[in-house]
Write a structure and sequence with these properties.
single chain; mainly alpha; 3 helices; 45% helix
C-alpha cells in the first residue's frame, strides 16, 4: 500500500498512479524462454503486451543477463553459519 497524505495528492515519482507492479522485462523474457517460446516469438509477445517494439536481440540480451545472475546465485558460497542445506529434486 502506498502511504497517503491528508489530501490524497501524493504519489511516488517512480510509480504511476494506481500502479501495483512494474513489469520486469527480464522476468517476462525468461518466463517465455522457459516455456519454450522462441526469441522472435517472445519479442512479438512482449511488443503486444507492453506496447513497445522489442527485437529478438533484445530478448536474447535480457535472457542472457538473467541466466548469468541465476548461475552466479547457484554458485555462490554457502554461508558458514548455515547449519543445514535442504535439497529436493524431481526427475521425469
Amino acid at each position: 500500500s502506498i502511504p497517503r497524505d491528508r489530501e490524497g495528492r501524493y504519489y511516488p515519482s517512480l510509480l504511476q498512479p494506481y500502479a501495483r507492479r512494474q513489469v520486469d522485462l527480464g522476468e517476462v523474457a525468461v518466463a517465455l524462454y522457459a516455456a519454450g517460446v522462441s526469441q522472435r516469438k517472445a519479442a512479438e509477445v512482449m511488443s503486444l503486451l507492453l506496447g513497445h517494439r522489442y527485437t529478438h536481440e533484445t530478448i536474447s540480451a535480457l535472457t542472457d543477463q538473467v541466466l548469468k545472475e541465476v548461475e552466479a546465485f547457484r554458485h555462490r558460497p554457502i554461508p558458514e553459519d548455515m547449519a543445514w542445506v535442504y535439497l529436493d529434486g524431481f526427475f521425469l
